[in-house]
Amino acid sequence: MLGKPGGVPCYCMSLHPLPLYSRHRALAAGGTPQTSPGGSPRRRKRLTPSPRNGDPPVTCRYYLPSRCFSASSFFFCRIGHRRAALGAYIFEEHRAGPARRCSFRPQHSMSDYTCSQTMRDFLRELPKCEHHVHLEGTLEPDLLFPLAKRNNVSLPADFPSSAEALHERYNRFADLADFLHFYYIGTNVLLLEQDFFDLAWAYFQRAAAQGLRHAEMFFDPQSHTTRGVALDAVVGGFRRACERAETELGVTSKLIMCLLRHLPVPECLATVQSAQPFFESGTVQGLGLDSAERPFPPELFTECYEQARRFQPELRLTAHAGEEGPASYVTTALDLLGAQRIDHGVRCVEDAALVARLASSDTLLTVCPLSNVRLQVVQHVRELPLQKLLDAGVPFSLNSDDPAYFGGYVLDNYVAVQQAFGWSRQTWARVAGAAVRGSWCDDKRKTELLDQIERVVAKYEAIAD
Ligand SMILES: [Zn+2]
């Protein structure tokens, strides 16, 4: 059974042609992708409709295989189209051609190594630093409902009526449009300073319970200011949660403001201008670049980074690069933006000279294993070049990216890596240590965390696995 005429069939267990997404329709008609119903386009990777490497322009006329959107991997299989997209823009190139067997396979059920209870305990206790988590991606159903009620935000009539029901619903997204439908309803409940505080505080509590000790967190001001929410409310709420986390949970943190690279550069520059007081005061300590890597290479944002650095010479700089984009994006982020670390960056291994450079300069990569699987960067965690990076001496940290949507918080990512690589405790101590050393906290805090790692490793040395 095939899709409609001209469609590409999906052979992943069964065939369920779905209606075309509206964006596909718009593109196929030569139109322009529109902003999502929630207002602000979603910060994301892989959102782009761009032809790449000389590929033909997008002309999507085909159907999407619904069986490829399971709870464990609700993105696309690869059947003759390029890859899935997620976010405000849904673009996919479904190429005509002979039917091929779908390459989709369940992800999380495929463990190469067991992770014993002792190892889980060890990983939980291991002091962890997280450098790649988008605060907007931490909004859990348990918080969404109270915020909607408090802000008198009406939820759609067909919206699940409880957090439990919504959790359950998140486990069975039918497709990307389905996911986005829920995502934007979630974003819309964030209006007041207290909402942003509650969002970040909920993240801190969850992650601290998993052994988080230091977090450097992204936020996307453009996702909120385009809805009329003041930047003061966003930063003020997040900052207050950071202070409480340090006092009550012992978790130190920093805020990194990200630019949505799929938006026009002048808009991003205006966002940098509006954040001047926060840069100057040190309330926001870093600048990042997220959303679709293609076709928005780092060099487009050179002026934004230069302007931000003029406001605050001590500002820390990072950028998403080398996840979807090629290794050259990592190089240009380093050379032209002055990035001091790279978010994702896993495609650096395609360039041996770049790997050597990252190793010799101790440039941290903030890798997100579960996110990479969910977004089909790799089919399985084991395919990530983590061992290769270790062997080459490239430092990296393990991070949750958007934990409310992508299957887990920081410890869940550690466990998934353990199940894929079966590392020793000493190797884990090395990984955790690299995360500490690559953090932007001061030397005193780094020494504290490194000492804590030593103590946890010593404690578990006497415990058989
Ligand atoms: Zn990210």
UniProtKB/TrEMBL annotation:
Gene Ontology cellular component list: cytosol; nucleus
Question: What Enzyme Commission number(s) appear in the record?
Answer: 3.5.4.2
**Catalytic residue list:** 323
Q: Where in the cell is it found?
A: Cytoplasm; Nucleus
* Keywords of this entry: Cytoplasm, Hydrolase, Metal-binding, Nucleotide metabolism, Nucleus, Zinc
Primary location recorded for the protein, binned into one broad class? cytoplasm
Q: What exactly does this protein do? A: Catalyzes the hydrolytic deamination of adenine to hypoxanthine. Plays an important role in the purine salvage pathway and in nitrogen catabolism.
Family indicated by similarity: Belongs to the metallo-dependent hydrolases superfamily. Adenosine and AMP deaminases family. Adenine deaminase type 2 subfamily.
Identify this protein by name.
Adenine deaminase
Q: Coding gene? A: AAH1
